[in-house]
Amino acid sequence: MNESEISSPFRLSTGGLFYRLMLRLRLVEANRYHPWRRITLFTSLTWLPLLILTAIDGTLTGNSVNIIFICDPVPHARYLIALPLLVFADWIIDPYMTAIVKHLRVSALVPKDAKPLYSKALEQLIRRRDAAWVDVVLFGLAFSLVWILKFKFEISTLDIETSSWMTTTSGKVERLTPAGWWFISVSIPFIQFILYRWIWRLIIWIRFMNSLSRLGLALQSTHPDHMGGLGLLAGAQFSFGVIFTALGATASATLANEIIHLGSTLPEVQLSIIGFVLICFAIITGPLCTFSGPLFSAKRHDLRHSSARATQLSEAFEEKWIKNTNGGQGEEPVTTANPSTVRSYGVIYETISSMRLIPLKRQNVIGLLIILVAPFIPLVFTQISIKEALKQLAQTLV
Questions:
Q1: Which residues pair with 175 in a beta bridge?
Q2: CA end-to-end span of the chain, whole Å?
Q3: What is the pLDDT of residue 156?
């Protein structure tokens, strides 16, 4: 890989066979994302055929099956919410990636003697992102897993006499409808491939961060972000929340299906929701913990150094301004132990003391939790009507 490829603006969403295909179809361009073009095409490929096929065989509405298409939240959440979010993830995540790589390249955060190792780590990241075999493997994995799960699903539901827009059941024989065939042959593998593609990019980005944490970064304990200058890196990690929000929308729809059609209740599935949110939170924030060691070392070193200097400065200040041993006669102007210097040094010492050992801000943590919980909020309305919820809210406020 040549130097121009490494020094060019970095985008995590590019690379691979699928990206090259989108370039040929003009769904993306070198400097433009065109998200609405892809959303229109992707929903036309995944959701629209289901709508048409269910309308043809009479399972779109009516009472011909137990679960009609229009009342099944799963396909609508997957292809009208989750899939567009995965498309918009390019637009949300890439600017952070570009800013971070540019900042690391031009700033003093990476020492000069570590620049070759940094370039090597970035080169490996780009090579793994652009690998053609990855998309082939991910598509094969997405397609094969669907059929493996279908086989297990058929075995586990032979005793359940439930028909839907996707399957019809007669006794112990379960058959896929035309919409069902399209669902498992095209719709599910496609969105799974898009999701796996982002998961792969998250994995290689985490590996890059792990390599970065071992470079002996020149962390700045006095940096105003209180993270040694890693604030931008922390913000970029939280941008991956959009991927897990899309995943949460799908999980929420699945739980809604169980509540509406299978008789489950919200209290019964709340542990699943809590577990999902905590796992996603750990995946997003966990990689930032790899910088705890360097941050701790930098904070300890600078605290020791600044504490010794603060002691010297305080002694000089007291000698000149408090004890005033010379009686104020014939004193030289105080240049180092004056009040403004002591006050400024106190601010510096407080800044070093408040340096975080994990590059996380409380507001970012709260925001991330809100984003991860948000897809599950509609489940409340499976237990209570919107009208009743608004009524209770009004009573609370009044």
A1: 168
A2: 65
A3: 37
Exposure string of 19-56, with b = 16+ CB inside 10 Å and e = fewer, is: beebeeeebbeeeebbbebbbeebbebbbebbbebbee
Q: Tokens 């010379």, residue?
A: 326
Nearest-5° Cα angle at 139, 135 to 141: 115
CA-closest candidate to residue 239, choices 101, 372, 89, 99:
89
Q: Per-residue pLDDT tens for 113-144?
A: 989 999 999 999 999 999 999 999 999 999 98
Q: pTM (2 decimals)? A: 0.84
- Cβ–Cβ < 8 Å for 74, 166: no
Q: What is the pLDDT of residues 182-193, one digit of tens each?
A: 999 999 999 999
Domain boundaries, the chain: 7-291+375-397
Whole-angstrom Cα distance, residue 342 to residue 347?
9
Q: Does 46 score more than 90 pLDDT?
A: yes
Residue length of the chain:
398
**What token pair was written down for 343?**
């006050």
Q: What is the mean pLDDT of residues 95-105?
A: 89
